[in-house]
Design a protein that fits this description.
By secondary structure, the protein is mainly α. It has a single domain (10-204), classed as Methane Monooxygenase Hydroxylase, Chain G, domain 1, CATH 1.20.58. 82% of the residues lie in helices and 0% in strands. The protein is built from six helices and no strands. Helix 5 (136-163) packs antiparallel against helix 6 (170-204). The longest helix has 35 residues, at 170-204. It is globular and about 55 Å long.
């Protein structure tokens, strides 16, 4: 049974918002990595791994919760999909962090910071949306903003890739591409979260 507007069942939405917050913290750690010294990179990696573990623990807690309650704020399959997509975002954030850590001497262009800023903005919106899944007006605005941010990220990715065509040796260009692709994958994961939210609006309105 689904919780309708006016009823309160905050646990599932709190857990989803909690996962989104962990992912957002992961993006902030990646931003710190871009300006970090060699000495504190190992510490940042441990923090990133801890965030990934906490996000997965919240996912497990959410699965246990929705199996044990009668009322849920959304159909269980939607809650599961949102949680999976958020954790998929975290996987790509961690992958980007690992790739950056593995190449401490690799100089990343300004587009890397731009992508992280876009991803951080997406996650700010996602945290707010996951906290208020019953508010379909907010979800619609969320969906619109996520489409715009994803298009912006796609453009940034193209500039990043084309600017590296002649600027780097092939192996350096490949390293740039791997990091850029991981960040773009995280952006697209967030768009998938918004697409799921959009399907909820259409079906449940």
């Amino acid at each position: 049974m689904i919780v309708r507007r006016g009823q309160r069942q905050p646990v599932a939405t709190d857990l989803l918002a909690g996962i989104a917050r962990e992912v957002r913290s992961g993006v902030h750690l990646i931003s710190q990595l871009l300006g970090s010294t060699h000495e504190n990179r190992a510490e940042l990696r441990e923090q990133l791994i801890d965030l990934e573990g906490r996000a997965m623990d919240l996912h497990f807690n959410l699965m246990t919760h929705i199996r044990s309650v009668f009322l849920t704020p959304l159909p269980r399959q939607d809650i599961y999909a949102l949680s999976q997509q958020l954790n998929r975002t975290m996987e790509h954030v961690v992958a980007a962090g690992d790739l950056i850590l593995a190449r401490p001497n690799l100089s990343l262009p300004a587009q890397s910071a731009d992508q992280l800023e876009t991803l951080s903005r997406q996650l700010d919106l996602t945290v707010a949306a996951m906290s208020r899944l019953e508010d379909f007006d907010l979800l619609e605005e969320y969906w619109i903003q996520m489409q715009r941010l994803t298009k912006q990220a796609n453009r940034t990715h193209r500039v990043w890739m084309t600017s590296s065509d002649n600027a780097f040796q092939p192996n350096i260009a490949l390293q740039q591409s791997q990091i850029a692709d991981a960040l773009l994958a995280a952006v697209h994961d967030q768009r998938t979260v918004a697409v799921t939210a959009g399907s909820i609006i259409v079906r449940e309105s």
